[in-house]
Amino acid sequence: MHEEQNQEHWPVWATEPVKIVNADPAWSEQGLKVIHQLRELLLPFKVTEIEHIGSTAIPNLSAKPIIDIMAKLESWDQLEQVVSALQPAGWNYVPPELDGREWRRFLVKVEQDQRKGHLHLMLKSDEHWDQQLLFRNRLREQPELIQQYDVLKRRLAMENQHDREAYTEAKTDFVQNVLNTGHPKD
Q1: Which of 95, 135, 164, 178 holds its CA 20 to 30 A away from the CA of 153?
Q2: InterPro entries in the record, alphabetically (predicted)?
Q3: Domain 2-181 CATH class label
Q4: What are the pLDDT digits (tens) for 75-114?
Q5: Is 21 exposed, middle or buried (0-12, 13-18, 19+ CB in 10 A)?
Q6: Residue 178 near residue 131, CB atoms below 8 Å
Q7: Cα separation of 25 and 58, whole Å?
Q8: Alpha-carbon distances of 60 from 21, 24, 25, 55, 128, rounded to whole Å
């Protein structure tokens, strides 16, 4: 694969291993802080909706200690300017051809060569926005799902420690079942 050939030139944070840590009550406050900072940075681009998503947005769920945030854009027309506004604050743009997800534009906040935040920019009309919120909210409402997801994530992180994409892919069935039925399995 082309990307694998060039990994030796990638920054350290791009290939760091998958590491799950115990839930941290501070993640909620950190998420609010990141949202506040992003609101100021993205205000000129008419971004009004910003949400804390992912495992750090779900109390009592272990996670990679990375704050995931999503924000809605009107279009990709100002993407270059958005990226330029975010770079001085430590956000690194990952082009779609490397990210592999055409429906979003992805940035990673890096501090001391470690990922501290992910920013998922999405268009107003994208269905992934609602799916992210539905998954987060269903887990928040159902503690038994948190426990099941926690066990799954820890196992998959050990199995896929050096392959972030495989780790993410391996969670897909659980996520889809929660989205479709509200439960991990029918």
Answers
A1: 95
A2: GrpB/CoaE (IPR007344), NT_sf (IPR043519)
A3: alpha beta
A4: 999 999 999 999 999 999 999 988 888 999 999 999 888 8
A5: exposed
A6: no
A7: 10
A8: 11, 7, 8, 9, 24
Q: Which amino acid appears at position 15 of this protein? A: T
Residue 178: both structure tokens together: 């929660």
For residue range 6-53, what is the model confidence (pLDDT) as tens digits?
566 666 566 677 899 999 999 999 999 999 999 999 999 999 899 999
